[in-house]
Amino acid sequence: AVEQTLSIIKPDSVGDNNIGAIIARFEEAGLRLAALKMIQLTKAQAEGFYAEHKERPFFPSLVEFMTSGPVCVQVLEGENAIVRNRDLMGATNPEEAAEGTIRRDFATAVSANAVHGSDSAESAKREVAYFFSADEIHTRWA
Ligand code: CMP
């Protein structure tokens, strides 16, 4: 099915000047951008986005990292977009990420892993709505 998924280019990649290189990976793979913006997350926004991880030991450092600089958030759209985006990203830990994946090529650590992508249809729905209103999403399939 055609799906939408939420993608975040994290502060490490924005700082490393890799926004365009990462977006090119999505486009070259046939995923389309239905929405795109650059934002500086507040602490409350980052905590809310990652609420499912709030009991994890890395939660405070995750929030600190995600608010350390601007991020680029986008809605990717396409056939099986959720799993295709996760395949393009590679494993959460860049040391375990396959060759040719975004995290293998652009990330430096599990805590600074270049990109985030929704992990299920339920998360995608929540995460897209977390950052974008309906009028900001320029779908080409609905
Ligand atoms: P992300 O897909 O954005 O979702 C949660 C994030 O927590 C994850 O990517 C990692 O960047 C981050 N994180 C930091 N430390 C860890 C860890 N030890 N295990 C898993 N995720 C971690």
From TrEMBL:
Cofactors named for this entry: Mg(2+)
Compartment list: Cytoplasm
InterPro entries hit by this protein: NDK-like_dom, NDK-like_dom_sf, Nucleoside_diP_kinase
A molecular function GO annotation: nucleoside diphosphate kinase activity
Nucleoside diphosphate kinase-like domain ranges (all copies): 2-139
Binding site for ATP: 10, 58, 86, 92, 103, 113
Keywords: ATP-binding, Cytoplasm, Kinase, Magnesium, Metal-binding, Nucleotide metabolism, Nucleotide-binding, Phosphoprotein, Transferase
UniProt cross-references to PANTHER family, sorted A to Z: NUCLEOSIDE DIPHOSPHATE KINASE (PTHR11349)
Record's subunit section: Homotetramer.
Homology family: Belongs to the NDK family.
Protein name in the entry: Nucleoside diphosphate kinase
Species the sequence originates in: Gilvimarinus gilvus
